[in-house]
Amino acid sequence: MRMRRKRNLEARVEACAPVLVARGKPCKNLKVAAESYRALLDYPALFGRSAPVELEVGCGNGAFIAELAKRERGCDFLAVEVCTNVVLTAMERVMEEGISNVRFLNIAAEILPCFIPEGSVRRIYLNFSTPLPEAGRERQRLTSDRFLGIYKKLLMPGGEIVQKTDSADFFDYSLRKFRENGFCVKDVTRDLHNSEYAKDNIVTEYEANFSAKGVPICRAVAVLQ
Ligand SMILES: C[S@@+](CC[C@H](N)C(=O)[O-])C[C@H]1O[C@@H](n2cnc3c(N)ncnc32)[C@H](O)[C@@H]1O
After folding, report:
1. Which whole-number Å values give the CA distances from 144 to 31, 178, 224, in the listed order?
2. Does residue 128 have its Cβ closer than 6 Å to ligand 1?
3. Rounded to the nearest 5°, which phi and psi values hold at 154?
């Protein structure tokens, strides 16, 4: 279902300037942009300190990253979301709660290399990425070879991807892709809420919806070798 455009969208996005560090695309063609445009983030300048940096791709309404940032005060967080209407909720949440260790990129994940320095990210969170089961849309899946190639550049040695999904098929696909792309897969569960990992789990908006319908949640960690 298409979400209605929020009122005063542009003015509200402008008011979130203190937490918004990148927006839009430098040129029409994402591939060209990813290869040729660079406006790399200066983390100490952004956060006023040097701390480990973690990244959520497709942060939606920001409930997850806001809670994680409050729990992990010693870490800095970047949250990427392509949809301006959606990321606005996340940015306003972080501004209202005065959370100082989160910044947002309102961009497509395809152009992350334009902004994120290579080898600078400790962990990437993929929460309920759209499974896109149609064969013709494989390249758009956030765990396809194309995206794993991007994450491998951004992650530091030994860095990891934490994935959660409601889709068993997408989970199987992702586990296969992680291994094919040189990641070591660990901490796999196909029923997160009844597993040893439930205690520290932060429930996202989509997770709450799926879980309320009785759908078990899959979760795994892929470590870069
Ligand atoms: C199914 S929602 C999940 C939202 C949230 N992570 C949660 O668990 O509640 C997937 C989100 O990823 C975003 N998204 C999809 N493809 C993306 C891409 N290539 N770059 C950035 N964001 C993307 C969508 O706009 C959407 O908000």
Report:
1. 15, 9, 15
2. yes
3. -80, -30
Q: Average the pLDDT over 103-125 and give the result.
A: 98
Condensed to tens digits (0 to 9), the pLDDT of residues 142-181 reads 999 999 999 999 999 999 999 999 999 999 999 999 999 9
| For the chain, domain boundaries | 9-224
Cα–Cα distance for residue pair 54/156, rounded to 1 Å: 11
Query: Which is nearest to 171 in space by CA: 128, 122, 225?
Result: 128
The rounded Å distance from CA 87 to ligand 1 centre is 10
* Record: fold of 9-224: Rossmann fold (3.40.50)
In whole angstroms, give the CA distance from residue 172 to residue 9: 38
- Predicted confidence at residue 3, as pLDDT, reads 78
Q: Indicate the pTM of the whole model.
A: 0.97
pLDDT at 2 over 90: no
pLDDT at position 53, please?
98
Q: Which is higher by pLDDT, 115 or 28?
A: 115
* Complete DSSP assignment for 72-132: -TTSEEEEE-S-HHHHHHHHHHHHHTT--SEEEEES-GGGGGGTSPTT-EEEEEEES----
The answer to whether the Cα torsion of 50, 82, 204, 88 is positive or negative is positive
Measured CA to CA, the distance from residue 223 to residue 178 in angstroms comes to 9
Q: Which tokens belong to 190?
A: 């196909």
Report CA(98)–ligand 1 centroid distance (Å): 24
Spatial separation of the C-alpha atoms in residues 52 and 68, rounded to whole Å: 13
**For ligand 1, atom 15, which residue shows the shortest CA distance?**
58
